[in-house]
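Issue 218. Parser rejects a valid record. Input:
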Amino acid sequence: MPPFKTAERVSWVDTDAASVMHFSNYFRFFERAEEALYRSLGIDFELVRRRYKIWLPRVEAFCRYESPSRFNDVVEVALTLEEMDRRTIRYGFTVANTTTQRLAAQGYVKIIAADITTRRAATLPDDLAKRIRDALGDPRE
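Output the parser choked on:
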């Protein structure tokens, strides 16, 4: 199944003194792609909190930087579902700089469902997991 994709322009605020996108901002672009995915599925983070009584904190994050993105470059963020089990989701990300036609970065985030009251691990709601699998495919297949 094809990945979910979004495009973003590198803003001035995303860059450092050399006009290169600061390394930490790739994680913001990862998260914006995830948020756009959920929005496309009719889900938002507040709905997840209210409806399912869970939140989705990140427990692991990784990014490998391949080539710089600079102010005003357009990057395409591709999101894939790498793993999903009863409690966790691992999204993979590829950031392609469409301005330079180069791979800018690749990485992942691992998310756990956590009960908003106890702050302990919880089970991902079946309908939420199904929506994500329907959109991105089942990584077990």
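Fixed in the parser; the record now loads. The beta strands are 4-9, 54-55, 58-65, 74-84, 88-97, 102-112, 114-115.
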